[in-house]
Design a protein that fits this description.
The structure holds two protein chains of two kinds. By secondary structure, chain A is α/β, with parallel strands linked by helices. Chain A is built from twelve helices and 23 strands. In chain A, the strands form three sheets. In chain A, strands 5, 6, 8, 10, 11, 13, 15, 16, 18, 20 and 22 form an eleven-stranded mixed β-sheet that branches. Chain B is built from ten helices and 19 strands. Chain B has helices at about 15-20, 25-40, 75-90, 110-115, 120-130, 130-135, 145-155, 375-385, 390-405, 410-425; strands at about 95-100, 100-105, 120, 160-165, 175, 190-195, 205, 210-215, 220-225, 235-240, 245-255, 260-270, 275-285, 290-295, 305-310, 315-325, 335-345, 350-360, 365-375. Chain B starts with 12 loop residues before the first helix and ends in a 13-residue tail after the last helix. The chains are: A alpha/beta, B alpha/beta. The interface between A and B is large, with 36 and 37 residues. Strand 23 (about 405-415) of chain A pairs antiparallel with strand 19 of chain B.
Chain lengths: ~475, ~450
């Protein structure tokens, strides 16, 4: 028998294309790659209790056992061994803006955080690499008894609340990437709103990736007690790097009886990021949960915000917008699981593909056997701006109860020639007409955003649409 | 060590050897290759295969089923029952009746033959019209899936229709497949080839693997009724290949079997091809009825429109998965899918998964899925007008299905199916009779 083993080596000269990028000032980082030692090092570095270390190690074994998903986007480009799973940027958490190191402040300045804060921020929890570096909580939130901080602090300072809810909505073995997050999570927000409290100002957190080969695995836990209201906003931007980054967050929301939680995201990671996120809420009797979910950036996004309607008259709402340009695949959607009777859900999805980009809507509506009087409506519309792009729709509906009214409608189309013609006959250029139609297409999503975000989104869309005509 | 005795004639290598011995060399080779593929392919698995996720066939042991029963006593009775059905649908139709022992009746095809239309068993065609049969079978590759591999290895008898250029078939053709006896396995084959033609037409009734090859400009109306007994496993692929400017109207009614998994594939290969697919499905008891459809738009200006109406009662479950694909070249595609489910009782379940994969931008593609129940007000209203509850349900189900029935390309077939539907809803359906099925 003749056998041969050949090895081919390719040495790449990395061509760094910096967006904007600070000199790495990280203080502590784990080895590249994943092992029980790395997980233990993260836990030890954070001085975590024993139960959290056990939770992490168990999650790691789940992660290793589970296969990569066989459906959805192409994830073959992820090299789990070439990722730093934990980087802590500064020694101590900063309480005030003045304490934040200059280089980090400059990055935030570019993102407009101080500006935003002066205007309207209730509390800032800005994540720089894996740890929250800047954090301020307005006094009136303290007075109301609202807890708003990062998850590490939540675990340390409020262990009784934290442990009661952590990992209950999304168990560590839920899916491969939730398991990964559970093993190496760091940072993210912890929000607790006491009974009957309405938080009038949106709570906001900025997340950033800033270290080459840095994965971000933030963990967000939001608990709204009976009759309370909170609106949480998460926005992301990231500078461009030459090698791929992995972002795998877990967000858990618990909306108790008659609580109302709104979660708004605009995801604009740089186009080399794999963004594989598990977001799920449980809504008890009379509760209302809304996911407002925009996906503009990243190389690959797989994200399906879910609502489990556990109590009678609970309502779930998912409003999503996706934009995929060259080299991007936005595989996003929603899940509404009707466990209790007289629950309702409403899903509206709008997506645009351009320049060879691909958007996929993937959704699931399930009605349990004992749930009666369930109503659900799903509406998906997609625009294809050119011949190279792709749009997919994968709505799954499992109806196990007779007393339901379920509807799903989807359309895929291009911008109508007659619409363009009409606008041009009114004096608009073709590109202005296209931009106007695209803005109108996203209108149901944009109008739900706070003003600053709506302005920012329209600006981002304008940038994305540049050169789309002619 | 336990000795395992294979039931004579059961699905297995010996049955393949027998089939191959009676076939021309090319077909014998194809059967052996298909058997190899069948044994190599794993059974579909709920956890591994996405399209099988909602359908569990772990209870099926194919090698317990007899595909080659030897001479049986019930052949004449089966043919008589099938002939009666032909009479109810279209008395003037040509008639091809298959059982596990091959084609048992071939009648009323004289007018067609005079036109130059071939109507014969697929086995005969494999000898006399090798080129056409080979071309058609190529649309169902031997290793395409576990059950198409099995079919390729062991199909028997079968109906072959070949309509030459420019001929409009004078009468419809009813192809019926039936089997009787415990643990009978039947692998019905239907192949329809329409050569390039300005206006050719045929009406069909068939089952299991149907290959419908529509040449340029040809038209085919294909109707299908599945009424196997409530203990039957039914696995089928119906594949239409549409060349330029051809038109297929496909209509299928599903009432029988304990578990059905059928694939409807409309492959729109030529510019201007047009496929209309319509399904009427009623499930009761513990039936599990699974439809999977593919509308593959591969050429410009193609059109497809699918409507599947499903009513489920008792503990029956309906699964529907549908995919519209639009290739980059298929600009000006118009694709539509509708799946409407009526839930008649607690315990009944329905899943609908209509999918779109669109790679061209100048298209109009949409789909809709709904699930609803009989409004208690509707029932109450009918009862207050003196309609008893059973009749009220029958009226409501018939009303729900009517727009789908109206899409049947053959009026006699629609009428026949409507009658069967009423019987099934009323609960005294022949479909429940053990080991007696027509399709």
């Amino acid at each position: 028998m003749t056998m041969a083993v050949t090895v081919e080596a390719h040495e790449l000269t990395k061509d760094y294309k910096f967006g904007f990028h600070d000199i790495d000032v990280s203080v502590f980082r784990t080895e590249k790659g994943l092992s029980p030692e790395v997980v233990a090092a993260i836990s030890a570095h954070k001085n975590e209790p024993e139960w959290m270390l056990k939770f992490r190690l168990k999650a790691l074994s789940h992660f290793r056992k589970r296969a990569m998903p066989s459906w959805g986007a192409d994830l073959s480009g992820i090299d789990f061994d070439n990722i730093y799973y934990y980087v802590k940027p500064t020694e101590e958490q900063s309480r005030s803006w003045d304490d934040v190191p200059d280089s980090i402040r400059q990055t935030f300045d570019r993102l407009g955080i101080p500006e935003a804060e002066r205007k309207f921020l209730a509390g800032v929890s800005a994540q720089y690499d894996s740890e929250v570096v800047y954090h301020s909580i307005r006094e009136d939130l303290d007075k109301l008894g609202v807890l708003f901080g990062d998850c590490d602090t939540g675990l340390r300072d409020h262990p009784e609340i934290f442990r009661k809810y952590f990992g209950t909505v999304i168990p560590a073995n839920d899916n491969k990437f939730a398991a990964l997050n559970s093993a190496v999570w760091s940072g993210g927000s912890f929000v607790y709103v006491p009974k009957g409290v309405r938080v009038d100002i949106p709570l906001q957190a900025y997340f950033r990736i800033n270290s080459d080969n840095m994965g971000q695995f933030e963990r967000t836990l939001i608990i709204a007690e009976e009759g309370s209201y909170v609106h949480y906003i998460e926005g992301c931007t990231a500078p461009t790097y030459s090698s791929d980054s992995l972002h795998s967050a877990v967000v858990e929301i618990i909306a108790h009886k008659d609580a109302h939680v709104r979660y708004t995201t605009i995801q604009n990671w740089s186009n080399n990021v794999y963004n594989l996120v598990t977001k799920r809420a449980v809504a008890y009797e009379g509760a209302r949960v809304e996911w407002i979910d925009g996906n503009l950036g990243s190389k690959v996004t797989m994200k399906y915000p879910a609502i489990y309607l556990m109590g009678e008259h609970a309502h779930g709402e998912v409003l999503s917008a996706a934009f995929a340009g060259e080299g991007q695949h936005q595989d996003a959607g929603s899940k509404c699981i009707h466990v209790a009777s007289n629950t309702t859900s409403n899903v509206v999805s709008r997506s645009i593909s351009k320049g060879g980009g691909r958007t996929s809507y993937r959704g699931h509506i399930k009605v349990h056997e004992k749930a009666t009087g369930v109503r659900s409506s799903v509406r998906c519309d997609a625009l294809l701006l050119d011949e190279e792009s792709q749009s997919d729709t994968y709505p799954y509906m499992d109806i196990d109860s007779p007393d339901v009214s379920i509807g799903h409608e989807a359309t895929v189309s291009k911008i109508g020639d007659e619409q363009i013609f009409y606008l041009m006959s009114r004096g608009l250029s073709e590109s202005d007409a296209t931009a106007l139609i695209v803005n109108g297409f996203f209108e149901p999503f944009v109008k739900e955003l706070p003003m600053e975000y709506a302005v920012e989104l329209n600006r981002l869309l304008a940038v994305q649409m540049e050169g789309s005509v002619g | 060590m336990a000795t395992q005795l294979q039931t004579p004639g059961a699905i297995g290598p010996e049955a393949v050897t027998t089939r191959a011995a009676n076939a021309p060399a090319w077909l014998a080779e194809r059967r052996r290759a298909a058997w190899e593929a069948y044994t190599a392919l794993p059974m579909p698995d709920r956890t591994r295969d996405e399209d099988w996720r909602r359908t569990d066939i772990r209870g099926l042991e194919p090698d317990e089923y007899v595909v080659d029963p030897g001479p049986t006593g019930h052949g004449a009775g089966l043919v008589e029952a099938m002939r009666e059905m032909r009479d109810r649908i279209a008395p003037d139709a040509a008639f091809v009746a298959s059982t596990r022992n091959g084609v048992r009746a071939l009648e009323g095809a004289e007018a067609l033959r005079a036109q130059g239309v071939t109507v014969c068993s697929l086995e005969d065609a494999a000898v006399h019209d090798e080129a056409a049969v080979r071309r058609a079978l190529a649309h169902v590759p031997v290793d395409g899936s576990k059950f198409t591999a099995l079919w390729n290895a062991l199909w028997r008898g079968g109906c072959f229709v070949h309509v030459p250029t420019g001929v409009e078939a004078a009468v419809p053709i009813v192809a019926a497949h039936s089997a009787a006896g415990d643990h009978a396995a039947i692998l019905p084959a239907t192949v329809v080839v329409l050569e390039a033609s300005p206006a050719a037409q045929g009406t069909m009734l068939s089952d299991a693997v149907s290959i419908l090859h529509l040449g340029e400009g040809s038209r085919l109306d294909h109707c299908l009724l599945q009424r196997w007994s409530a203990s039957t496993w039914h696995l089928a692929t119906h594949r239409g290949v549409l060349e330029r400017d051809s038109r297929l109207r496909f209509f299928a009614a599903t009432f029988g079997s304990r578990l059905q998994k059928v694939y409807w594939d409309a492959l729109l290969e030529g510019q201007g091809a047009d496929a209309t697919l319509t399904g009427v499905c009623f499930g009761g008891g513990d039936q599990h009825l699974d439809h999977q459809s593919l509308q593959a738009h591969r050429a410009p200006a193609t059109r497809s429109d699918l409507l599947l109406k499903v009513a489920v009662r008792d503990r029956a479950q309906s699964v529907y998965g549908g995919l519209i694909t639009v290739d980059r070249a298929a600009q000006r595609t118009d694709g539509y899918v509708q799946n409407r489910n009526l839930m008649l009782s607690r315990g009944a379940r329905a899943s609908g998964i209509p999918m779109l994969e669109i790679k061209a931008n100048d298209v109009r593609c949409s789909h809709g899925v709904t699930a609803g129940h009989i409004d208690t007000e509707q029932r109450f209203y009918l009862q207050s007008r003196g309609v008893d509850p059973e009749a009220a349900d029958r009226l409501i189900v018939r009303g729900f299905m009517q727009d789908a029935l109206d899409r049947s390309p053959h009026a006699g077939f629609a009428e026949f199916v409507g009658g069967v539907l009423d019987e099934v809803v009323a609960g005294h359906s022949a479909a429940g009779v053990e080991a007696e099925g027509l399709s």
